[in-house]
Design goal:
The chain is mainly alpha-helical and 76 residues long. It has helices at residues 3-23, 44-68. Helices cover 61% and strands 0% of the residues.
Length: 76
C-alpha cells in the first residue's frame, strides 16, 4: 500500500471515528425521563465483579464442561 492510500485510509478511519464520537451523546444520559426509577448505584468492586470477574468465571465453567464432556478419542 503506497503512502497516498495509507493517508486516505487513515483519514477515513479518523473521520469515521470522529463522527461516531460526535453523534453519540452520553450527556443526554443525565437527562431524566418520565417514569425513571433508577435505584441505587453499585460500587467499583461490584462493577468489576459483575463486568469482569463474572464473565471470566462463566467462560471457564463452559470451557470446563466442554473438556469434561468431550467424547472424542484421546491421541496418544
Amino acid at each position: 500500500m503506497d503512502k497516498k492510500n495509507a493517508m486516505r485510509a487513515g483519514a477515513v478511519a479518523a473521520g469515521t471515528t470522529l463522527m461516531m464520537l460526535l453523534m453519540s451523546s452520553p450527556a443526554l444520559a443525565l437527562t431524566r425521563d418520565d417514569g425513571d426509577d433508577p435505584g441505587q448505584g453499585i460500587g467499583a468492586l461490584e462493577t468489576v465483579g459483575v463486568f469482569v470477574v463474572l464473565p471470566i468465571v462463566i467462560f471457564l465453567v463452559i470451557v470446563g464442561l466442554v473438556m469434561v464432556l468431550d467424547k472424542s478419542k484421546k491421541q496418544a
